Amino acid sequence: MHNSISSMLNKARYLLQQNAEAEAVKLCQAILKHDASHAEALQLCALGLKHASPAKADVYFRKSLQCSPNNSYFLGNYANFLAGTNRNDLAESMYKKALSLEPRNHDTAFNYAVLLGAQHRYKHAILLLSKQLPLGAEQARFYSLLITYSEKVYQYEDALAYCMAGLRIDSSNFQLRLQHAQLLRELSEPREALALLENLREQFPKSAEIHYLIGCIYYDLQQYHEAETALNGAISLAPDFLDAHKALNKLLWENGDERKFLVSFAQARAQVSNPLRLWLAEVEHLISSKHLTAAEQILSDLEKSNQQQPDILYFQSLVSTSQGAYEQALAKLKLARKKRPSHTRYLIDEAAIYIRTEQYKRALSLLDLALKAAPDNQEIIAYQALCWRLLGNEQYDWLYNTEQFVRPLQLEAPAGYATLTDFMDELKLLISGLHNAKNQPIDQSVRNGTQTVGRLFSSQHPLITQYQNALRNAIQCYLDRLPQDKRHPLLRRNTGKFNFSGSWSVQLLRDGYHSNHIHPAGWLSVCTYLEVPPAICREDPAKSGWLKFGESCLALGDKESIIKTVCPEQGMSIIFPSYYWHGTNPLCTDKPRITLPCDIAPI
């Protein structure tokens, strides 16, 4: 009988490899009739049922572990199953136990790191993965994931080191070579990145991702014709490549080419069997560009054939909200949340509607749910603060302590410059040359102005490096002076160390302004004023071009409150929490106002 069971188990394993789960389960159940506590048969039954019947699979997983509680392989499989069914806390405990029993189980460590990454716990994942490298986990997938997570926490130099280490082991690995080019782009080495990508394209001419990255780099270089050609090439190879569509239409919008704007979506839909994702991506662009009637018509047509599809419902709620039809928007959002009850975006937008309709406590209950999933989400914190202010809750003053958290940074003039003004005048000449777009960006707060692309601080230009170093020193002084408070969403994350998570430049023209917004990718934000027209002055009663804090993006009328205004001056740098609502008054002069904003993340 023993030989028969061994043979049946081998066959069951083979059947699972061939995706013949039902047959594998039948074999294992036959074994269990003779031995109900056969741990491996129970485990194979669980693996065979995890897709068809997750509830039954869970029972078999637990029974197999009752029979063999210290089997790291069983623990790892159960952890994978739990992670796939969003029971993350239990999955993590299983991964930890499996690794305590078998630290060199690289598959378990890798899957655990994937779970940590899905929870945005990138630092923990990096630590876990890096510990596996000395234990022999030198597969390309480990280096690839380390690169990805290092980029997520803005550790680009570390990411590059992992990339080079991986390539020394496997120099022909496609994913690592692609990531190498991506990193060079992030580190402002576009020519080197292009050379790598062109070499890759010769070997893999049908790779849409290569064409896409080439297009993005040409966009960074402001070679827009070449960028458009490469992005169209990516779409021709993969008609449903949404990132390529988004990049192409962003380029067309910002360069004022309305004739071609959104055409790529229509052309691609004719080439795919299920065009829903393309329709929805076009709707998103239509809403961003304020073409609400066209968006509404598409969504109405889509609803007929895709009833109760949550993304359709969500975009319908956005259109209704933009039209002030809040009850209709709420109805759509509630239906969407029935399908995806923990979706952070849905929770935030539903809470925003409750704020608009003065149902602040209902809004707070939804924001509390969202914060459990994303405790560092700056947008959730911003709406929470808004509710507290409107309810007269003292926690608002605790969170929005402008006297403590909004500070001017005193930059030192870099070596070789007599004054900071001399340095800023020279930097201004460099930065103004980067503003070549014709239209405001489609996805930012800028109105009647332009914004540079990419990470400005990745540039190797000496002036930008000098500015970044001066700013870094001033920010460090700010962090060193912050008090401690383990409950406060700003203060609890202060490690005393930081990286720049984003950096760019904005040029506002006549009547230009920033709509009220927050910085979702930040923790702290800084704005440095590079060019301030003479019309912006303390004596101006209209406060043209001034920075203002406190007003939300919800246009609540007399319920809005400006809690602080700042008159910009050349060379001034202002630091503030990224969850602060802020915007600017329209610029009433023909001379541009140029700023250098950036976001900061703790490390």
UniProtKB/TrEMBL annotation:
<feature type="repeat" description="TPR">
    <location>
        <begin position="344"/>
        <end position="377"/>
    </location>
</feature>
<dbReference type="Pfam" id="PF13759">
    <property type="entry name" value="2OG-FeII_Oxy_5"/>
</dbReference>
<protein>
    <submittedName>
        <fullName>Tetratricopeptide repeat protein</fullName>
    </submittedName>
</protein>
<keyword id="KW-0802">TPR repeat</keyword>
<dbReference type="Pfam" id="PF13432">
    <property type="entry name" value="TPR_16"/>
</dbReference>
<dbReference type="InterPro" id="IPR019734">
    <property type="entry name" value="TPR_rpt"/>
</dbReference>
<dbReference type="Pfam" id="PF13181">
    <property type="entry name" value="TPR_8"/>
</dbReference>
<dbReference type="InterPro" id="IPR011990">
    <property type="entry name" value="TPR-like_helical_dom_sf"/>
</dbReference>
<dbReference type="InterPro" id="IPR012668">
    <property type="entry name" value="CHP02466"/>
</dbReference>
<dbReference type="Pfam" id="PF14559">
    <property type="entry name" value="TPR_19"/>
</dbReference>
<feature type="repeat" description="TPR">
    <location>
        <begin position="208"/>
        <end position="241"/>
    </location>
</feature>
<dbReference type="InterPro" id="IPR052943">
    <property type="entry name" value="TMTC_O-mannosyl-trnsfr"/>
</dbReference>
